[in-house]
Write a structure and sequence with these properties.
It contains 12 helices and 6 strands. It is of the alpha+beta class. It is elongated, with a radius of gyration of 20 Å.
Length: about 325
């Protein structure tokens, strides 16, 4: 018979990537996901003897990771700005346990940037029960145990979380849409990269839906608009203004970020420094939402992707 520690270590190896993704969805930040997933793993190994049901070890791991994340979020008490996005990550889909039909949105968009941004609008406990039940596939009773509550309270929290996520995914102030392609249209993203690289207003205009929404996250360092930009005309005006302010040429590469094609913009004249990452949602061959990350701290880990030898999808 295997020891509890051996069982936990084997489960950690199977779930390491999923545990990181869970912590990333809970916090929206790469570095915090690194630290919190490692803390959860260390805590699980230390408490291996407390594992009561070896057949449910994976759910036990996710309960521990959720507790670690909730403790961190309570300490941080961070207020997100309207234009604050989450960290873009070079991270693909994670195979999760099957969930019910109400979780279809989460099943198809496990780490999409738009979804992770929308999740941050939920209260931490709502976020936790939604992820544990709808994404990780844990029974509601186990999700309740992770939150230190009972089944009825967890069910009510899950209901509010689903409703809150639906509102966030269809709110013009968050730029979210629910009637979009499951993944950004790769052909549209490729055309966007060329339009940005060539600074072609006409080519960009052909790609934008009339009701397109855009937001830029400067991280409080790069001056950007303090509110979202709504409508194709307004977004094109901002693009024209930025093109005039940034005189040097740019290079655009299509890479996979958050499990879908995105555009990485760099400055060849500045040692190929990453200038921005552009994440879009598409519908019927048009861009319906555009999220642009200009925050240097969020972009720094993507520098390797901007090099000529970086992966191009």
């Amino acid at each position: 018979m295997q020891s509890p520690t051996t069982i936990v270590l084997a489960a950690v190896e199977r779930c390491r990537k999923r545990l990181w993704a869970h912590c990333y969805r809970m916090t929206g930040r790469r570095a915090e996901a690194d630290d919190l997933s490692q803390e959860a793993i260390a805590r699980a190994i230390e408490r291996a003897d407390a594992l009561q049901d070896p057949t449910a070890v994976e759910g036990w791991l996710f309960r521990i990771a959720t507790t670690v994340c909730l403790d961190h979020l309570r300490r941080a008490r961070r207020v997100r700005e309207l234009t604050e996005l989450v960290d873009p990550v070079a991270f693909d889909d994670v195979a999760e346990a099957p969930a019910g039909p109400e979780a279809a949105l989460l099943q198809r968009e496990e780490v999409r940037l738009a979804l992770v941004v929308a999740l941050q609008s939920l209260a931490p406990k709502q976020r936790a029960v939604l992820l544990l039940h709808d994404v990780c596939g844990l029974p509601l009773a186990e999700a309740a145990a992770a939150l230190g509550t009972n089944g009825n309270a967890a069910k009510a929290t899950l209901h509010r979380a689903r409703a809150g996520l639906a509102r966030a995914r269809s709110n013009v102030h968050t730029g979210a849409r629910i009637d979009v392609d499951p993944r950004a249209d790769a052909g549209v993203v490729e055309r966007l990269a060329r339009a940005l690289e060539e600074r072609s207003v006409d080519a960009l205009a052909e790609l934008l839906a009339d009701d397109v929404w855009g937001v830029v996250d400067g991280g409080g360092v790069v001056p950007v608009a303090s509110r979202p930009t709504v409508g194709a005309r307004a977004l094109l005006r901002r693009f024209t203004g930025l093109s005039k302010r940034v005189a040097q040429p740019v290079a655009c590469r299509v890479v996979r970020l958050n499990a879908e094609p995105s555009v990485l913009v760099s400055l060849p004249t500045a040692a190929n420094a990453v200038f921005a990452s552009v994440h879009v949602e598409t519908r019927a061959g048009r861009i319906t939402a555009m999220r642009v990350v200009r925050d240097p701290a969020k972009l720094a880990p993507l520098q390797a992707l901007a090099s000529p030898t970086g992966a191009r999808q």
